[in-house]
Amino acid sequence: MSKNQKYSQSLTDSRFGGWGWSMIIYAMIMYFFFAALSTDGQNLFPTAFAGVYGFDPNTLLAYATPASIVGIIGGFIFARLLIRHSTRNISVISLIITGAAFCVWGMCGNIVLYILLLMVVCFFASGFSFVAPTLMADWFPRKKGIALGWATIGAPLSSAFFVSGFSILLAKAGFKAAFIIVGVAIIIIGVISLFWVKDNPEQAGRYPDNMLPATAEKFSDAGNMETVTESGGITLGQVLKTPNTWLISIGYGLLWMVTVGVVSQFIPRMISVGYTQSEALMFLTISSIIAIPGSYFWGWLDGKIGTKMASVIYSVSYIAALLILIFASSLAIIWIGCIFIGLGLGGILNLIPSMVISAFGKEGFKQANSLVTTIASLIRVLAFAIMAACLTVSGGSYTLPYTVFICADILGAVFLLLIRKKK
Fold first, then answer.
1. Is 331 exposed, middle or buried (0-12, 13-18, 19+ CB in 10 A)?
2. Largest Cα span, the chain
């Protein structure tokens, strides 16, 4: 251990040490590319392919839904692999295959190949979303909130900059070259990962949480850790039988569904109240930028008051956002709505793994997270069907779907409040 190492003294400080910060930055990159390839890029990819190969962009966009389901399946498989195999090795494999597939995808002038390569990209890119929180769980089992708060900044960074950056790349380098450049960049990160990533702090000669053992013991003895009785050695069957599994999965799944529902239809909602498409896009971009410090905020709040209460406050913030969207009548109200929506964008990827770590501990995280995040993801994708059905019934009015989402948000908060903590 380095004599000059500045060790952490609290659950909310950012003293992670050099190696700790290195792993947080790596996790941030994983979140960036996961969001870019699986979600944010869908704002641009269908239109770009349609312009080059003459496909119908709406048809291409429709294929994003089955590809997302394939991604969820891929995420579950990678999560199971992380239980028995090195996080570094899984990360390297998912990065290199994703990068290679992305390079080839840009050359797909056949719609069948387009669909297949899209599914391959979503399948392997889903590994990024499990590698990142697994690293944070192994490196920062106590300081998971603030560590994830920094790491998940990668997702809103993608929302704010990937689409515009890739648009510039398409214009300057050309269609195929743009895909090759991004794909090669992902492959290079995969190769570098062989020398960069350490599965746990012990491999780098560091302490978990960058805390001296005596300091870590103090926090555990003081009861500051939200850990329940389940711990290491837990099996998938035991996870399935644990009430907390379903409370966390359904609770966060509902909150995630609300987040996706609000963001996916934010631009149409703004247009429906009289704003132009460019103005609506500006509001969404501002929300994405607000999400960057928002990620840190939820991580800090997590460490300060605990994951459960931070999650309930998150739920309340989105109820406020929905009410603002229902009664959106002035520019001032819209700006306030952007703040609430932006804060929410920066929180959900942080709070889910943090609660799983709280509930199952460092040793049980991989086993539990493989199931919890998969179930929550399946609930998340219901947002599109609910929004479409409600808009059909209401004749295009957003009041009905937003009211349904408010009810879902409240129900999600109730599930989270029922999560059992250690006595």
1. exposed
2. 67
Q: Give the tokens for residue 123.
A: 């399948």
Q: Which residue has the tokens 């743009």?
A: 178
Angle, helix 243-264 to helix 382-394, in steps of 10 degrees: 50
Instruction: Name the CA radius of gyration of the chain, rounded.
Output: 21
CB 314 within 8 A of CB 255: yes
Of 216 and 238, more confident: 238
Residues 6+ apart with CB under 8 A from 343: 290, 291, 294, 297, 298, 317
List the one residue out of 61, 26, 36, 64 whose CA is nearest residue 47: 61
State whether residue 108 is helix, strand or coil. coil
Lowest average pLDDT, out of 217-221, 340-344, 365-369, 415-419, goes to 217-221
25-48 confidence digits (pLDDT tens) = 999 999 999 988 988 887 788 888
Contact yes or no for 337/263 (Cβ under 8 A): no
DSSP assignment string, 321-382: HHHHHHT--SHHHHHHHHHHHHHHHTTHHHHHHHHHHHHHHHHHHHHHHHHHHHHHHHHHTH
* pLDDT, mean of residues 175-201: 95
- d(CA 423, CA 418) in angstroms, rounded, equals 14
Q: What is the arithmetic mean of pLDDT over 310-316?
A: 92
Q: Which residues are CB-neighbours of 306 under 8 A, at least 6 positions away?
A: 226, 358
